[in-house]
Design brief:
Blueprint lengths: L3 E4 L5 H15 L6 H10 L4 H5 L3 E6 L2 E9 L25 E8 L8 H15 L4 E6 L4 H6 L3 E8 L6 E9 L2
Parallel strand pairs: 4-5
Antiparallel strand pairs: 1-2, 2-3, 3-4, 5-7, 6-7
């Protein structure tokens, strides 16, 4: 499998939204109830600010989108355009952790290196802008990948803004 990557563009939004829906429904199923999956769809998704900031990546194999994800120099830890409580103020690289955001792998490409590639792209870009740490909000399905890539749990969260409590993990990593 040969994976390529590029920055996401506004024209990608419909395909990315479909990929996110498939990932939430399929990859979260072993960890969440159907009500929690529905709530996850209300809480998570694409933050188009990441595309505008040119910090959101698309990973492809033979022209097919295998995954997506990005990083941010803004305060919001997770959530899409429709999520309440977003905070777009800028982070200070000398005191704040950059955010890894909205990472999704299409179920057909799970466990093939897509997530690791996205993380490496995000970490390299954040390091290039002077960030020494990175944080993210992990789903239970994503936790094993993040731990394998050196992230540790900072805090266990439960988000009930989607109507049903959804467990999440705030995780972090020091960048080299």
């Amino acid at each position: 499998m040969t994976l390529t990557h590029r920055l996401a563009a506004p024209d990608d939004i419909p395909a990315l939204t479909a990929l996110m829906d498939a990932a939430i429904g399929d990859l979260q199923a072993p960890f969440l109830t159907p009500d929690q999956i529905a709530a996850s769809r209300r809480l998570m998704g694409l933050d188009s600010q990441l595309i505008a900031d040119r910090t959101y990546f698309v990973v492809e194999e033979d022209g097919r989108i295998a995954g997506c994800g990005g990083w941010s120099r803004r305060a919001t830890l997770y959530g899409g355009d429709h999520s309440p409580g977003r905070d777009a103020h800028g982070l200070n690289p000398s005191t704040d952790a950059a955010r890894v955001r909205a990472m999704y792998t299409h179920p057909d490409f799970a466990r093939r290196g897509v997530g690791r590639l996205i993380l490496s792209l995000c970490e390299a870009a954040a390091t290039g802008e002077g960030f020494a740490r990175v944080e993210l909000a992990a789903t239970l399905a994503g936790q094993p990948l993040y731990e394998a890539c050196g992230y540790t749990v900072i805090e266990r969260l439960t988000d009930d803004r989607g109507g049903t409590p959804v467990p999440l993990l705030r995780m972090g990593k020091t960048l080299a």
